C-alpha cells in the first residue's frame, strides 16, 4: 500500500484537531512510505546504541591490561559487531523496498530505486536566538517568539514532506529560510551552541555538529531524495507519467550534484562527494531508462528503421547502467552502497544489453531487402549500428544476402540469451532482488522471447557459424542531463525581517547599542541630509547643529523616530516624517557601525570518512591606524558572550565556516512582501563546507 491514504492537499495552515500542518506536509497520513520512514527512524536509534556500545568496548580494550577483562571485552565486541551488521542489513532491506515507492497502477516494468529521507532530531532555537537578539541586536528577544516558533514549525514540517511538488517547495522554503537565519544569527567567529543531528540514510550512523551547514546540506539531500520518490511514483503506463518521471530524476540529479559541488566536505558519508557522484549517475540512468520506456510505450512496429532506433536506445540504457555498476564497485563507495542496488544496476545493464541485441536480430532476420527498398538508407543505418562489421561482411552485401543476414541475426540472439542468463543469475545471488516478483517476471519473459526466436531459426550447422555479434553503438534521441534546483522560483519571507535590512543588520556586522538623539529643526533646517535606502544614514552633518550636539554622528543609521520603526523606510519617507514635527522636539534613535567594512574570510576544511574533523577559519581584519579607539571597543564587544556560549570555548578548534549571503532586497514589514531567494546570486566558492 502506498500513498493511497494520503489526505487531500491541505491549505497553507489547516486545522487538524488541536494542531495544524503546513501545505506540503502531512504527518498524519499513515502510508506505506511513512511507515517505512518510521522503521528507518527506529533502526537509526538501534544503530546509534550499538555504535556507542562498540565505541565504549573499544576504549576499554585500549585502556585495560587485564587479560581476563580483555578477553571478555573481545567477546562482547564480537556480539556488538554482529548485531550492528544485522541492523545495517535490515536498513539495506528498507533501502531496497522499492515496491512501496512505485506507482499504485499495476505495471509490468522493472522497479526504480528511490532514496529514503534522512532522519533528524528535534532542535530548539528559542533560547539561543532570543539571547543572540538581545546581545547582538539590542532588542528584546521575547518580541520575536512568534518568528522563532514559525521557524521551528517549518523545520518540524520538513520532517514529513508530502510526495509531490508541494513537499519539494516546502523543503526549498526551509532551505532558503536557513540562508536568512545564517546571515542573521550565525557569525563566522563564534558558535551558537545549537546542535544539529542527522542520520546517514545508508548506514544509519548519526552525525552531530554545531554547524548550520550540516542542516542545509541534509535538507538539500532530502530535496533530491523526494524527487526520486516522486519519479518512482509516476505512472509509467502513460506518456505524461513517463515524462514526469524523466523530469523528476533529472531534477534529483541536479539537486544532488549541486549538493556535491557546494558542500564539498560533509561529515555524513551519504553526502560525501564520492557517494553523491554515484547517486547522480543512478538518477540519470533511471531517467534514461524512462526515456526508453517512453519510446516503447505506443508499441513497437516491426519495421527496419524503427528497430534500429529502439536497439540503439536500449544499448544506451545498458551502457549507462554498466557505467553505474562500475562506479558502485569502486572503493570507498563499494563498502557503503547497498549490495542490492549494485546488483540491480548489473541486472539492468545485462537486461537492456540483451534487448538491444534482440532488436538487431529481429531487424536482420525478419526484414529482407526487397526490390524498390531504400538500399542506401538501410546500408547507412546498418553501418552506423556497429563500430565495425564482422570480418568478411559489408553492410550492403549483408543486406542483400539472406543467409548472411540470418547468421548475423542468430549471433545477436546468442549474445542476447547470454545477457539474459547473466541477469537472471545476478538476481538469484541477491536475496533482496529474489523477493521482487515483478523483476523476476520481466526478466523471465524477455529471456523466453529470445530463446523462442532462436529456436525458430535454429539449424543443424549453427555450431559451424563462427560469426561473433559486434557491439551495438548506443544512441539516444533524448540525452538526459541534470536540471539544477531553481530556488529563485520559490518566494520566501524572511521570518526575522523586523530586525532590519539584511545588508546592514546581520551577524557579520557590529554596531553600537541604539542611542537616543533629541534635537529640534531650527527654522526648518535639520542640520544634516539623508542618504542610503533602507536603512537611511545621516549625511553631511553640520557639527554645530542641534542633532550633532545631541550626539549624532556622520554615517549613523536611523532606526526609529518617535517610536516609529525606520529600518525599512526610504529617504523620502524618513525626511517626510522628520519634517512633520516642525519646530517640536524630535527623538531619534541611531546606531553606528563598529566595522567600517564587512568582515572577509577564507575557509579551509579537512574531511575523513565517518569522522568530524577540524574546520578552521581565517578572518582577515582590515585595520585602520587612525581609529585605534574604535578597534579597541570592537574587541571588547566581541568578547561579550552570552551564558549559552560558554561551552564553545572548549571547541574553538571546531569552529565551522559559514556561508555569507550577499545583500538582498527585502520587503518592508508593513506591506508584508515576500523576499526573493538569496541563492540566485550565491557564490559557490563561499559555500564550501
Structural overview:
The chain is α+β, with helices and mostly antiparallel strands and 689 residues long. Among the domains are: 32-96; 511-592, PDZ domain (Pdz3 Domain, Roll). It has 19 helices and twelve strands. The protein has helices at 32-63, 67-95, 98-101, 126-136, 145-157, 165-185, 212-233, 239-262, 273-296, 304-328, 339-366, 375-385, 395-400, 402-429, 431-434, 437-456, 546-549, 571-579, 628-638, and strands spanning 13-16, 19-22, 196-199, 206-209, 515-520, 529-531, 537-539, 557-561, 564-565, 585-591, 600-605, 615-620. The protein has a four-stranded antiparallel beta sheet. Strands 1-2 form a two-stranded antiparallel sheet. Strands 3-4 form a two-stranded antiparallel sheet. β1 (13-16) and β2 form a beta hairpin. α6 packs antiparallel against α7 (212-233). The two termini are 39 Å apart.
